[in-house]
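User: quick one
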Amino acid sequence: MIEYRTIRVGLLGAGSVGSQVARLLLEHSDELTQRIGARIELVGIAVRDTGAKRDTQLPPELLTTDAESLILGSDIVIELMGGIEPARTLVLGAIASGADVVTGNKALLANHGPELFAAAEQVGAQLSYEAAVGGAIPIIRPLRDSLAGDRIDRILGIVNGTTNFILDRMDSTGASLEDALATATELGYAEADPTADIGGYDAAQKAAILASLAFHTSVPVTAVHREGITGVTAQQVESARSAGFVVKLLAICERLVDDETGEEGVSARVYPALVPRSHPLAAVHGANNAVFVEAAAAGPLMFYGAGAGGVQTASAVLGDLVAIARRHVIGGPGTAESTHAELPLLDIGRITTRYAITLEVADEPGVLEQIAHVFAEHGVSVEQLQQTVSGAAERATLVIGTHEAKESALAETVAALAQSPVVESVASVLRVEGAV
Amino acid sequence: MIEYRTIRVGLLGAGSVGSQVARLLLEHSDELTQRIGARIELVGIAVRDTGAKRDTQLPPELLTTDAESLILGSDIVIELMGGIEPARTLVLGAIASGADVVTGNKALLANHGPELFAAAEQVGAQLSYEAAVGGAIPIIRPLRDSLAGDRIDRILGIVNGTTNFILDRMDSTGASLEDALATATELGYAEADPTADIGGYDAAQKAAILASLAFHTSVPVTAVHREGITGVTAQQVESARSAGFVVKLLAICERLVDDETGEEGVSARVYPALVPRSHPLAAVHGANNAVFVEAAAAGPLMFYGAGAGGVQTASAVLGDLVAIARRHVIGGPGTAESTHAELPLLDIGRITTRYAITLEVADEPGVLEQIAHVFAEHGVSVEQLQQTVSGAAERATLVIGTHEAKESALAETVAALAQSPVVESVASVLRVEGAV
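Assistant: Done. Structure below.
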């Protein structure tokens, strides 16, 4: 019988992910011991209220409200409380006390990543966060390790399950945003206050984390351009469908040359965009997530799976825990986060994309010419234009697809169109991404 | 100016992957130095013939035929020669001399993995092989690290690009196997001797590697049941298409309870199978690869990308190299391969699957009853049966889909059908995988 050494693990938070982590740690203790070569002992679970009702039965003797003491008695701290404080203070405290840390806290990383990584590097602590992006999907470790010798050019991610569920439902049933959101709430895919999801805040945090990692550059969430799905209409989804596209909320991280400076920079942004049906991301249904990565040598790669869910996300947390614990057994510190590149962070105006614009215009001679003039004077090239005369007299609908142009030029074009006397309204503006 | 220490890298082999690794190492030297915190020096490239013509220009002064001396002067050895010998002896020599090793040699790993891992573990050497399966796709590291805390139940992999190109082309154009193979050869997707690919040998090696890793059990390639695509006909592909399926060559690794012993065991197998069009693997086109993983906590995951190609596979090699080199900088050995589980390896007869069987039968009363009797006496339940009377008189075609049954029972059923006086011929037998 082998005498295994014990590694003490303290868990902060017992929500949907935390309680599953605790359950799996307790249930699969023997198997984990063999994989690690040491015994994992869950020494405590810090919660706000030890008497609170939980989905998963947890041993009451492990529950504590004293997170600080728990940290001091832990070799590895798993932080799954969410939010900035007290999570930030506790994680910094854990690192300072010599513990390694696993966290799934995207808000914390997207706002204070550099501070945490610097603190960890200073003492040689490991800080892992696979669960922070893409739930169960291995994406952090592949970006950090597997693609470490490659050069990542672009990431297109469906990283928010709630909005993907809503948009997928609008696409498959023709439902309005309101109805699809109501269904999502009913089925437990959306929270009572859905702002973080439908406003794109959650996706923006994940974009910040992915961009930092992919481009070896600190990208705070404040540098991420963010548009949510609240403006997406059933009409837009229907038009997209008939044109061979699907509307997806994308987190886009891109390395590009800023043509003003001639220097490379990084753009991170979140917005609903048209994706061609033939693109692998178009086939990501329901609350699933997928991250599409374009690397210089590897070419296109996609990572797909459950982007949320307690037990699914717990898988990512335990993967980090096992990897860290193995290092305790074989010795040697973890790998520090690299931000050696520190590329400039580019404003949304600097990126290049394509627009699909729907206009309500007067149905009279010379209108097309005037519209075309607006595009031309902003240097935006029109790829296709489709006019349908609506039932109401003297009105027509114009759907215009542009070639690639600078976002700033496109935005100015749309503003000028809105001012044009022949345009009654700009009914829809969506970017087109993922085109081949 | 930081003085970086130098890590000496010796490259064995300068084929399509090796020459791209050399090129990228030389071209991206500065960027790699920053990511690693040490300078990578490519000290030599061992080849059989220093005068041979190569696609990529390599510095002639780096070429050598003396692999043994190159190894002795290397901190990290990259083995991309392929084949068992002299690769095996050289890799063991590198490990013995204190070097870490990156290899993309699937034949070597599938046949001698345990020997190599044991040698590496004994001296604390790192041995990485991301390039051995799925080309550029990060799959080895996600299985080993990201899913280390989960329990993998099943892997369905499209791991051979040549056969996927051929089957995809048969599916999309109706071509015969011969014609699709000819196209693959013409376009450079198939080698002059395509046996390793179309015979399923390449996929079987990858199945052995994936199963070993996923189930913490040594699975030699000799334990992998292997069927190639040589028997797949245009007719089968067409029938599959009209029934909502696509034929794919799958590498399947499965953890299952052997009901004879009541114990868990591992099955690894390669065969062409019907996959429902709605399954993510059905959308893997051309020479691309994808690995679909079902884990107990994480649920279904998919990893998709280029499964071959010199520069693509070089990305995986460089990822391993950077990860190993970082460990040189921060200290501490690598993580040993775990085979703690050593589950029994189950024969193909023990697995459970579904069959799609096409029979040519006499078109006369009582035939269906006799056919049904054959299924019933072998304990195989029929899910659906479709009869079409063919143009020729007194002949009918029966397409029978079974429920899940033990492979051995299904095989016996097919053998009994072939003997039945009412069956003129068994036209096609394909397994159905990936059903929901």
